[in-house]
Amino acid sequence: MSTVLITGGNRGIGLELARQYSAEGWTVLATARQPEQAEALATLGAQVSIVPLEASDGASIQALAANLRGVPIDVLIANAGISGDLKAAAQAVSRDDFLNVMAVNVIGPLLLARALKPNVLLGQRRVVAAMSSLMSSISANDWGTQYAYRASKTALNAIWRTLAREWGADGLCCVLLRPGLVATDMTGGAGQPVQASVAGMRQVIEGLSLKDRGRLIGFDGQDVPW
Amino acid sequence: MPSVLVADVGQEIGRRFAQDYAARGWTVFAAGPGGPFDALPNVVSVSYDPMAEGGADRLARQLAGTALDVLIVVGGAHGTPPPPDDTSPAVWQSAMITNALAPLELISRLKANVMAGGQKKIVAVSRCSASMALPGEPGDYISRASRAAMHQLLRCIAAEWNEPGCSWIPICPAETPDVDASVQAMRQVIASAVPREAMSLLSHDGRELPW
Q1: Interface check B93 vs A, CB under 8 A
Q2: Which among A19, A133, A154, B18 would be 20 to 30 A from A84, CA to CA?
Q3: Using a CB cutoff of 8 Å and minimum separation of 24, what contacts does B175-182 make?
Q4: Does the pLDDT value for residue A29 go beyond 80?
């Protein structure tokens, strides 16, 4: 049976990914900052293991990799993310907020992918996915706002494009996913049901091959322009 | 004569821009953490450290009431470049500030100066490797990502300002050791730039590059 590792698994999209993959019989490794408080994940059954991770902390990522040494991972999904201050105008973007968003949304996924690359190489499917966004698109940005969040997702795209080029020779498929606007805590309930978004992304992942590496693919299967 | 602010002139490209504009008689405000940078006629040295919190605010206070025709922001950290795949906190934070956030801070604080200028041109010097569609260098994670982030921030602030008379010019130097030739080519692109509805990433010789 296949194994998926999902960061930020205790709520929103991450939780639904864990729910759907476990329902399909996958072994799910779901990370949470405080596993003892991950009550929603704990209800998903024995196929879901909750593992501790502070997604932006290099030491925490290394500890996770040490705990998982030798464990094959078929699909790695760097899902954990934060929005930061979405309403700040240009002059109000603070360094603390900007760097915090970058740490969680950009650097954490990069460190995680590098740390768990050996595990994904042991897997059969060899997918390394990261959660991007339509907000990452520069060409589609006609209305501004969300400075730190947008910039972080654009930066994430750039890193995943580099990983895709480098790791393709190892048979790893690095892709970016766009969940669409999903009704979660982060969006205040606005957007499509999380079940539909996750079902779409799972279908995208299921159909991936090495030729798809480096793409930014939406839950609807459509590419997002850079 | 028109005026230009170049930051950071501690970077070689910034210094060459300042020299080039000064040689053509422009009033040049040369901003950087070192200095003074006023060895040439027409060059006014202004203190600016992109890494320092509040650095853009202090620079804006120095230039209060000064019209700027062209604002040129050159990113880049100082000191010995780290290995391209170095992801230590000090390295990525420095890159994200100098290449992405500090340019945003500076542009946002100098809006009144730019709007008081005749040309209203905002230039951000980037790198071709920051384009998603172009192949990046192996291991070039942070530099590429921070420049790509800057492209997005520039697009955001252009939308926030919504000033039809402004020209937003993210531009990539030539991949050549001849920095003077690259700067002269970019200066010609800047000189001929006109306000456009959609911002584009440009090469040193004015070709549109994919984001």
Answers
A1: yes
A2: A19
A3: B175/B128, B179/B12, B179/B13, B179/B16, B180/B16, B180/B20, B182/B13
A4: yes
For B3-209, CATH number out of 2.40.50.100, 3.40.50.720, 3.65.10.10, 3.40.190.290 equals: 3.40.50.720
Q: Over the stretch B123-137, which tens digit does the pLDDT of each residue have?
A: 999 999 999 988 778
Task: Provide mean pLDDT across the span B53-80.
Answer: 93
d(CA B125, CA B14): 9
State the pLDDT confidence band at B83, using cuts at 50, 70 and 90. Answer: confident
ipTM of the complex: 0.96
- Of the candidates B86, B152, B47, B13, which has an alpha carbon nearest to the alpha carbon of residue A146? B152
Could B141 and A151 be called an inter-chain contact, meaning their C-beta atoms sit closer than 8 Å? no
CA distance A97 to A83: 10
For residue A182, give the DSSP letter: B
> Choosing among B59, B97, B155, B202, which should be mutated to test the A contact, i.e. which has the most A CBs within 10 A?
B155
CA distance B210 to chain A (A): 8
What is the tens place of the pLDDT at every residue in A59-91? Answer: 999 999 999 999 999 999 999 999 999 999 999
Residues of A in contact with B100 (CB under 8 A): 151, 155
CA-based max dimension of chain A: 51
pTM for the complete prediction?
0.97
| Count of A-B CB contacts under 8 Å | 115
Are B144 and A106 within 8 A, CB to CB? no
Q: What structural domains does chain A harbor?
A: 3-218 (3.40.50.720)
Residue whose tokens read 């995680």: A112
**What is the band of B38 on the pLDDT scale with cuts at 50, 70, 90?**
low
The residue ranges of every structural domain in chain B are 3-209
Q: Which of B28-32, B86-90, B108-112 has the lowest mean pLDDT?
A: B86-90
SS3 B9: coil
Q: Which chain B residues have a beta carbon less than 8 Å from that of A149? A: none
In the beta sheet, which residues pair with residue A76? A5, A128
- Cβ density class B156-179: b for 16+ within 10 Å, e for less: bbbbbbeeeebbbbbbbbbeeeee
Give the distance from residue B141's alpha carbon to the nearest chain A alpha carbon, in angstroms. 5
